[in-house]
């Protein structure tokens, strides 16, 4: 999940530009009478020559934000230097408004490479090439979910979850192009059936950042062959999904894959090429359509979407019109261009000085049943007069303290992002939201403030159906390696022992009680922790 932060930071803390919209933004608090502009984007940190040569505050996208985590958010109103106090917080709620309906889903999220272990793919090659922040870091056995899945399902049930997000590892299923491993397919089928038997609805991601080792050599995303390769992979996977009534995600955070892997060179395959980025973007939209066709042929009706990393963007200098323009452009490109293509069949991206595309893909129109939102933070954008033209930073302007990975804790932006999705007229699933909290004490309050935003958005007509916390377990966080800890359960990376953090009791109380409560209220109950 932390990958998106590194990628954004890499864009000089922002190599990503975007198509603009001129609607006012409300992500950031603003002064009375001041009009807000609303860009959205998800950013992270980036490595590379461009980042080194950019302004001193240029940043990279973080792996978690890339990945699950991994994301680019909403455009914010201009913020005066003092940060603007408590404006933008969720409105006060009545007792009834603090209640979640019975059909609202609470769940947890993971991805295959980050938790399963024993996988040989493009990320394993990237690690051996020394491309992580700590060059000798290896994912290796990860947290051994491949062998401990029954234990982990039990942990999810124990915190009150009724859904469990996993991904299928393409490299495990198709280690050589055209050769599909029947044992791997059968193993995934068995795991998903066991998940459902435990009362957990499967949420299945078909592609979560990683590729087989042959993919970038033979069918990289900027070539039309990538669509055929993805279609063949999904065709092989479709039968194992029969009868599961799973929520399906074709692609996780495609903009992070594109920005990090094709524009910045921070992620596999390591390209830094604007035209290739735009060609890859169009092919990923077409790959989603191909996946839908293959799934429908086997399953009939499907609930299919993508998970989009969405950042809440705000101008770094509230008084500078070009920072506002950067926010508007960035928000459209990073947060909305892909979903707009799936809803309208029109792909529009404008990245001044970098790359642009305008494509008609009529088959993509109406090709998703829900909007998947991955939200982690707010990003401050600054216009630069030279390449890459954008700088990105996480700032603590409200004095709440940055999270341990260095991101701003800004739940108000989450609410704004959710309200932004209302334009699509589709159900919304929060497919990732979480905090790197290595001490474990901040997470209950993080959950409270972000779930409060979910309830506020629902009260304002946003059809939010579920909330999946990232992550059930501490895990391997892409470029960040083993440092960040997003898990409801702390994992000892030496012994692989799972231990509950204080957030487990809070998540359980809300999920089982269907009611938002303050963490302090739970702490006052002697039986709260188990």
TrEMBL record:
Gene Ontology MF terms: beta-glucosidase activity
Protein name according to UniProt: Beta-glucosidase
Domain of life: Bacteria
GO BP annotations listed: carbohydrate metabolic process
Basic residues: compositionally biased ranges: 37-46
Keywords: Glycosidase, Hydrolase
Family: Belongs to the glycosyl hydrolase 1 family.
Keyword Translocase (UniProt): no
One Pfam family this sequence matches: Glyco_hydro_1
InterPro entries: GH, GH_1_N_CS, Glyco_hydro_1
Region (Disordered): 22-60
